[in-house]
Amino acid sequence: MTAVTPALRAGVWGGLVELRQAFTGMELVGQLLWPVATLVAVFFLRDVAIGTTGYEIGTIILPGALGMFVALGMLLVVQQLAADREDGTLLRAKATPNGIRAYLVGKLVQISATILAYLAIILIPGVFLVDGLEISDPSSWITFAWVLVLGLVATQAIGVILGSAIATPRGAGYLSLPVLGLIAISGIFAPITGLPDWLQWIAQVFPIYWLGLGMRAAFLPDDAVVGESWRQLETAAVLGAWAIVGLVLAPIVLRRMARRESGSRVAERREQAMRRVG
Asked: Model's pTM, two decimal places?
């Protein structure tokens, strides 16, 4: 307990410092770009009807967009972990008592808070832009809360595991392509029933599909469901399983990766980065 508490305190403080830096100056523009662009898309699609269902596209895609931004926390972890390996931040954390634990806590705090800011930017104006969202029912917010918590833990823990295998930001960029492809087949903006069966099975193995479904279960009425139900039990089971596996494996792989870090490796990566820039 005595070792864990200072690490948690240092990690939370470090994460809040990074969060403030990420939302200051020109960094703020980059942070606002994608959630604002998503909100603009919802605005223009708010009156476009989906056949004879009685729903508009904007109403359907807004909850899916919330799930997508939670899932993108996975990529944020991978990208930041790769950047921190290249510039020596992770090596400095390794040299500090309980530094790796504090580093992991800080990263999860910073990225989780960033995602919460994204969701607020989309959801708060969104409830006034589109009709048909179930926002007055307390159970909607309860569902939103547990899907969000499980989704944050599951996706960011996966991000740590994947990021531990990526040595450079360029590698993180390559990894983003299959992740974005997985988002594309995961029914974030439309039901996956139109996809081939094998793609549907692949999508349902990973947490991204269940994040989209869980957010729609939270904010859409029951008659908007495609299928028999919103499958909330399955959503909790899959997201919970990924969260548990991630929480067990993420610290292990991060510690193993940190043990391999050295000053010579950091210098080599910097030299390679300079050659790419040159």
From this structure: 0.88
**pLDDT tens track for 82-114:** 888 877 788 788 778 778 888 888 889 999 999
Cβ(68)–Cβ(62) below 8 Å: no
Residues 91, 260 contacting (CB under 8 angstroms) = no
| CA-wise closest residue to 161 among 225, 243, 52, 221 | 243
**Average pLDDT score over residue span 120-146:** 91
Which tens digits make up the pLDDT trace of 38-65?
A: 999 888 888 887 766 667 888 888 999 9
174 — pLDDT class (breaks 50, 70, 90) = confident
SS (H, E, C) the chain: CCCHHHHHHHHHHHHHHHHHHHCCCCHHHHHHHHHHHHHHHHHHCCCCECCCCCCEHHHHHHHHHHHHHHHCHHHHHHHHHHHHHHHCHHHHHHCCCCHHHHHHHHHHHHHHHHHHHHHHHHHHHHHHHCCCCCCCCHHHHHHHHHHHHHHHHHHHHHHHHHHCCCCCHHHHHHHHHHHHHHHHCCCCCCCHHHCCHHHHHHHHHCHHHHHHHHHHHHHCCHHHCCCCCCCHHHHHHHHHHHHHHHHHHHHHHHHHHHHCCCHHHHHHHHHHHHHHHC
